[in-house]
Design brief:
With 522 residues, the protein is an alpha+beta fold. Helix content is 32%, strand content 18%. The protein is globular, with a radius of gyration of 23 Å. It binds flavin-adenine dinucleotide (FAD).
């Protein structure tokens, strides 16, 4: 029998006797095999990629639940002993905190075993799933049942899941790529153990839970995302009908300075839904690394990679300085008309080399991009970690207007700061309707303490300088959540802490998530 020992890491403010009692109660509730306390059992919950010490995000235990009643039981025990609990669903939040707790000493509530696909409606194009359902599982279900539906998912598609990704307001690459927009109906276990359903979910016998978001009165779904007011145990969302024709394409642009014109070219097409999906504008190093290029193939010099080498890589790998990926969806007639509009606009722009599926064949990175845009899971994007090696990664994700001058300014700013710290700009813009998720992978060698320190300083400077320029990130890794919460101002924080006091007075649900922590009152 595994025992919590004298060496057990205790949660903040919990003494050993109380923690042992909590562990004993978890075991009685969940069974011995679902309560993990030994160091070797906890390794998967402490594999962080952030530039801080693992110890800062070490869990005190991990528990797995399989039913809503068990989740309610966990919450009850946590309240009794004031044990903080950090919930994960599939736990693949790589580069944002992985499966580790936001603060040292929290108990992980791992919901991967709650993995039932509860409902898929091929006519209304909706789904209702439990937290542990992976995108691969849903994809297989859709294939097995031959359903005319298309998924949208984050790049770690096969192993990640819709519920966790949407709770962190992640993005995908189809026309349904803004995942929280497509969410419809949540079931949430509150800190007091109540089971609350959003939207139409509270009405007995109602069957509109997955088709009408708003219900009646305040609409609270958003309040539970990127937050610590509840544990989501079911989520509904909309699926895209599979179009008869899918036409992916790439446009390569040769110069880094082309970014402003690219954005001006894309924006009207995107807002008018001529191009309906989350277009990606990927920089050269993103492209090179996802098809397995290593920095060491080109240079052994420390520091940032020179522009001359970037040009060389571009030439060797036949890449653009910027590479636009988009797709058209619909009937043949619709696609033909929209293709004419896109190619006409490109002709007017007078630059950019267009590549179609027929021309690209099975080559990477076109292949995995086309898969992401058509809902076929793959793991090709993990190639990013080849570039520098050493497993360090933190996403810096400022939001920008979809305006050429803004995107140009942001990429130049980010490159300057990264290069100053001896790191590379490995970035892409993901085009929302009117916004850009500017996503930069701050890649560094985590096996080098010196480089890790530099990456930490670089990330802090990125946040500082971008804030001075009026830009903020939409999501951040758990090491920097408090810092980012500050940039959104005191009124928002005060309100969030007021809600926390009302809903979770014992501060047991994920304290620290998005900077909300009653022990660090605002
Ligand atoms: C190479 C690479 C590419 C990536 N590309 C993308 C991308 O395209 N788009 C994107 O969005 N991300 C991307 N990511 C980041 C991340 O891996 C994905 O967002 C992934 O989907 C998140 O992990 P998950 O789905 O397992 O969610 P989880 O890790 O299960 O959950 C994420 C967070 O949501 C909260 N949460 C989870 N479940 C619950 C619950 N039941 N109740 C309350 N709160 C909960 C927790 O705070 C948790 O930490 C990428 C990462 C890598 C390494």
């Amino acid at each position: 029998m595994s025992q919590a020992t004298a060496n057990t890491l205790l949660p903040r403010g919990v003494n050993d006797a109380n923690f042992q009692q909590a562990i004993a109660q978890f075991r009685a509730l969940l069974g011995e095999e679902n309560v993990l306390v030994k160091d070797e059992q906890l390794i998967p919950y402490n594999k962080i990629m952030m530039a801080v010490d693992n110890a800062e995000h070490a869990p005190s235990a991990a528990v797995t639940a399989t039913t809503v009643e068990q989740v309610q039981g966990v919450v009850k025990i946590c309240n009794q002993f004031k044990v903080p609990v950090w919930t994960i669903s599939t736990g693949r939040n790589f580069g944002y905190g992985s499966a580790a707790p936001g603060q040292r000493g929290q108990v992980i509530l791992d919901l991967k075993k709650m993995n039932k696909i509860l409902h898929v409606d091929p006519e209304l194009c909706t789904a209702l799933v439990e937290p542990g359902v992976t995108y691969q599982q849903l994809y297989d279900y859709i294939q097995e049942h031959n359903l005319p539906l298309m998924l949208s998912f984050s790049a770690p598609s096969a192993i990640a899941g819709p519920l966790g990704n949407t709770m962190d307001r992640g993005v995908g690459y189809t026309p349904y790529g803004e995942h929280f927009l497509m969410q419809c109906g949540m079931e949430v276990v509150l800190a007091n153990g109540d089971v609350y359903r959003t939207g139409m979910g509270g009405v007995k016998g109602d069957n509109a839970w997955q088709v009408f978001k708003w219900g009646y009165g305040p609409t609270l779904d958003g309040m539970f995302t990127q937050a610590n007011y509840g544990i989501c145990t079911k989520m509904g969302f909309w699926l895209m009908p599979k179009p008869p024709v899918f036409k992916p394409f790439e446009i390569k642009f040769d110069n880094q300075s082309d970014i402003a014109e690219i954005v001006e070219f894309i924006r009207p097409l995107r807002i008018a839904q001529i191009i309906p999906n989350s277009v990606v504008i990927a920089g050269v190093l993103w492209e090179a690394s996802t098809c397995n290029t290593r920095r060491s193939d080109y240079t052994s010099e420390p520091g940032a990679t020179s522009d001359a080498i970037l040009k060389q890589i571009q030439k060797d790998k036949n890449l653009g300085a910027w590479n636009v990926y988009a797709a058209l969806y619909g009937t043949q007639e619709q696609v033909d008309v929209n293709w004419k509009i896109v190619t006409g606009a490109l002709k007017q722009l007078g630059k950019g080399r267009i590549v179609t599926q027929e021309q690209a064949g099975d080559t990477q990175p076109f292949k995995y991009r086309a898969q992401l845009m058509s809902g076929v899971p793959n793991l090709q994007e993990f190639g990013l970690y080849n570039w520098r090696g050493g497993g360090g990664s933190m996403w810096f994700a400022p939001v920008s207007q979809a305006r050429g001058s803004e995107c140009d300014k942001q990429q130049a700013l980010a490159k300057r700061i990264l290069n100053k710290h001896g790191l590379d700009y490995v970035g892409e813009f993901i085009v929302g309707w009117r916004d850009m998720h500017h996503v930069i992978d701050v890649l560094y060698d985590r096996s080098s303490p010196e480089e890790t320190k530099r990456a930490n300083a670089c990330f802090a400077e990125l946040l500082d300088v971008f804030e001075q320029e009026g830009y903020a990130v939409y999501r951040v890794n758990t090491a920097f959540q408090e810092r980012v919460a500050q940039s959104y101002g005191p009124v928002k924080r005060k309100l969030e802490h007021t809600l926390k006091r009302a809903l979770d007075p014992n501060n047991i649900l994920a304290p620290g998530k998005s900077g909300i922590d009653l022990a660090n009152p605002f």
